[in-house]
Every structure is written in structure tokens, then in C-alpha cells.
User: What shape does this take?
Amino acid sequence: MAEILSLQEAVARLVRPGQTVAMEGFTHLIPFAAAHEVIRQGITDLTLVRMTPDVIYDQLIGMGAARKLVFSWGGNPGVGSLHRFRDAVENGWPRPLELDEHSHAGMANRYVAGASRLPFAVLRGYRGSDLPTRSATISTVRCPFTGEELAAVAAVNPDVTVIHAQRADRAGNVQLWGLVGIQKEAALAADRVLVTVEEIVDTLDPRPGAVVLPAWAVHAVAVAPGGSHPSYTAGYSVRDNDFYQAWDPISRDRETFLAWMRTHVLEAA
Amino acid sequence: MNWTPDDLMTVNAARALAGAGTCFVGIGLPSAAANLARRTIAPDLVLIYESGTLGSKPTTLPLSIGDGELADTADAVISVPEIFNYWLQAGRIDVGFLGAAQVDRYANINTTVIDRGPDRPEGRLPGAGGAPEIAASCGKVLMVLRHSRRNFVEKLDFVTTVGHGSGPGDRARLGLPGAGPVTVITDLGVLRADPETAELVLTEVHPGVEVEQVVEATGWKLRTAATVGVTAPPTTEELTALRDLRRV
Assistant: This one.
């Protein structure tokens, strides 16, 4: 059953060094505030899972929080490279980063299998691609009914999934809407679920197209207004595209990056 | 009106969408072209973004595939597993529109790593994203990228996404349902996959571009059509619509 906690306490209780952590949100509702709290608490050796690592994992990787990344597209959307991700992969700075790399369809199905508590998912994917040669979590399986050979991808079951949502009620029921991405599957695939929200309200008015995660499927809710910035929260904020562009020069240089993180994350509790 | 090589590329990429009903849109150059098509040659074109939008109608070009306007203007907003499983894999989408870092003569794509030589680590690219399954399952695939020997290579450093594999018949052997890449639009001209050989052949150059220039900018011995055409210059309507889209 969900407990309503401060962000600091929620991260301290749920996220531990060495664990597998998914912070999801497909462009929308990316839980930046929670990631910054993970960095401030010095939680490290994480296996980070996320379809689109985005600036949020560029920051975690650049601060040395991750030993492994499981992903399907690692760029700064519409801008270019994630420079901290590249520096870790190419030069091992600030530490080497192991990769498990998929396509979006593969990753989406890995979460579906995880949420369903199945060992793997099937899809028509990866045919002819070199991707299976670099991943131990991509294989093939023969359909017992038609004999067709299909791609099989291992389920992903994070220790903790962290997502951001518009709001929760006082019991800890969570409501999110707009681009809902992979968040429901990522939450249900995990052992523990931490949700940051813009606000806590008395009643969750029904919203067309909204996803509701009942309180009994969530472990901790923390209020973090603006907690998705520079991503956005439909109904509360718009994507800060200027920031995504500004991140390119900030993240290119190690010292500039570290100075930015000191000012805007480490010393900004 | 004046135009740039990038304008020629985007205008011709938009024209390639004539007659398409539904288009799975990659971000960047493909998104610019697909949105221009909706404002010119294909007003009813249904734009589908991998963030989970069916029928987006943005008024300006989105920076990312998940900008709020794509969802706000969509006919339906759905989850990511749904878009890949129920819509793409199920074969409901006519055209996939992709960019690429490296492409070879059979329109295979690398967006994963670049080999920088024995003493240097591989250069890291963003990775696959939706491309492998978009190229597999859409009815056909269009590609748009800038033309250079760095991008049009003899041999890919890594095959992220299969176009026509190692030649004719390979898609059928691999069980890839769609027709694969049929047209590649660049800032120099238009290449089309030869139905017999599956190899990309230069069929048109843009106004002011020489065939020799395109051959020179291609990392393999580029075949050219018996008669290489010249694409029609951009119209005032096309350029006005493009500039309108790019305004912030």
C-alpha cells in the first residue's frame, strides 16, 4: 500500500546501491527530481533501465551512478548525442558502462513480459539485425502452433521503477495522462514503485485516457512539483526544449558538466 | 524564392508521400518532410509517432517525438507497447519514414556504432530506436539523409536495421513482410531500390546538381539510371509551407 513520503525519504527507503532501477517516461513525465535525489544520496552501482536514456540518464551516468545501461535509443531527442553516455561508453569516464541494447519494440515487450510475470515476450523483430550478437537477452523461439520462428526477449523486472505523474489522492492512488508511454508496464514489472507527483488532491476526477495505478500497486508517493523538468507534465508544464538544446554544450565538457551538476543538483536540495 | 540543399531534400521527401494514408514518422528530417506533406501534397496523411500518437497535427515542427502538441492534436494517444504491437507489427501502417547515420547500397542502416580504427574505441551512435521493426513491418520505407561518403558507405560498421539485406530475395528469406526501403531522398538527389537487384540507383538529381557530384559523394560505385532526371524546383507554396512550419 502506498505511503506518502518526502522525496528524500522515499528514495532512501526504496532505492539501494547495486539495484536495477527503471526511471521511465517516454519524453513526457520523466522523473528528473527523483533522479537528482538519487545523485544527491550518492546511490551507485545501479543497473539503469530505460527505453530512451535522455538527459536524465546522461546526468546519472556522468555522475558515476551506473555500472550498466539497458536501453533502446540513447540520444538527446531532436538535438544530438548524449555526451556523458558517449564518454562513458567510449572512454570509460567516469567509469565503464556495460550495455544491453535493444530496439524500442523489444524493450516495450520486455516490460510487458515483466509486468505479466512471464519469463519472456515474443515479437516479430530483430530479423537480420546485428543487435542479437551483442545482447544475451535477445533470442528466438518457435511457435508451437505454426512453426514460425519469432524473436524472444527476456522479461525485465526492475527492483524499483520510478515514474512521475500528474497527481495522487491522499490514499496514494495515482493518475497520469497525456503520453503514457511505457509507465504502466514499467511500474507493474517492478518489485517496488516510487511515484513523484505534481500535487496531492482530495479526489481524482476521472480524465479521458488517464491511467490509474491503484494505491495497492504503488509503494511510495512523493510530491515533487515541477519534478519532470526539463521534460514536462501535460496540464502542468510544457517541454523545455531550450533546456534540451542548452544541455548539449553543458554536457560536452566534463568540467562544465560537473560544475553544472554541483550548482543545480548537489547543492540544490 | 531562394532555397537551400536541405529545402530541396525536405520538399522532395514530402513529395514522396503522395498517396500515402498512414506514416510512421522518425524525428528530425523525416518529421519535417511528413509535416510538410500534410500541408501540401497529402493533407489527409495520418502521422504516427512512436511516443504513442495516432494522427498528430502539429502546427510547428516538434523538437522531440514526444512534444506535447503531438499528443494534444492526435486522434488517439496510446501506450508504447500498443503502438509497436497492435499498429506497427500488425501491418496497419503504409509508410515508415527513417533517417540514418550510415546506409549501404542495399539500404541497410547503421545507427549503433562507428568503427574508428584498431587503436580507438568504437564511436557511439544513439542506437536502434524504432527503426528495425519500422523497416520490417511498414508497407514500404522512405529514407531521408544528407549525402556524403561518411553516410553512404561501402560496408556498414554494424547492421542495426535491415533494408534489402545482401540483395534480392533477402527480405523474403528473413521473413520481413513490408517492401522495405524503396526511395532514399538526399540533399543531392533521389535514389531508388532497383526492383531486380534491390540496389540503390540514382534516378534523379536536384536542380543545379551534377550526376558526377552524387557519384563522388557516395562510398560505393553508385549505379545511375539510363536517364537521370532532374527534380522539379520547389514551388512557392512548398517553400512557404516549409518556412511556416519551421517558425518557432
About this structure: Chain B has one domain: 5-246. The radius of gyration of chain B is 17 Å.
